[in-house]
């Protein structure tokens, strides 16, 4: 794993933890809590396109912030789902 991947995982998790909303990354039939660094390590190593599910009181802000972090690290989101 590269330092860029490590930085992406840490920043994604830190960004997600700023929000009260539930933020879940889906790939294939697996769902990973984005606030979990361990879950992200296994997910970001095995998949290249993601669906992001965001539910909660600050979902709009969370979606925007997560999209920005994924774009910063050239990680592709298929969609951001309500």
Query: How many domains is the backbone divided into?
Result: 1
Give a count of the beta strands, DSSP E runs of length 2 or more: 4
Q: Helices and strands: which structural class?
A: alpha+beta
- Per the CATH scheme, the topology name is Histidine-containing Protein, Chain: A
As a whole number of angstroms, the C-alpha radius of gyration is 11 Å
CATH superfamily descriptor? HPr-like
Q: Level of helix content?
A: 40-55%
One letter per element, helices H and strands E, the order comes to HEEHEHE
CATH class: Alpha Beta
Give me the number of helical elements: 3
Distance between the termini: 31 Å
- Indicate the overall shape: globular
Strand sequence of the main sheet, in spatial order?
A: 2-1-3-4
CATH arch. level architecture = 2-Layer Sandwich
Q: What is the residue-mean pLDDT, rounded to a whole number?
A: 87
Which percent range describes the beta-strand content? 25-35%
Low-confidence stretches: none
Question: Biggest β-sheet: count, sense, barrel?
Answer: 4 strands, mixed
Organism: Paenibacillus allorhizosphaerae
Pfam family, one: PTS-HPr
Protein name: HPr domain-containing protein
InterPro entries: HPr-like (IPR000032)
Protein described:
The protein has three helices and four strands; from the N terminus they run αββαβαβ. The chain has 82 residues and is an alpha+beta fold. The protein has a single domain, classed as HPr-like (Histidine-containing Protein, Chain: A). It has a four-stranded mixed beta sheet with strand order 2-1-3-4, covered by helices on one side. A hairpin with a 2-residue loop joins strand 1 (22-27) and strand 2 (30-33). Helix 1 (3-16) packs across helix 2 (37-46) and helix 1 (3-16) runs antiparallel to helix 3 (59-72). The radius of gyration is 11 Å and the shape is globular. The protein starts with a helix and ends with a strand. 23% of the residues are buried. Pfam families: PTS-HPr. Residues 11-71 form the HPr domain. This is HPr domain-containing protein.
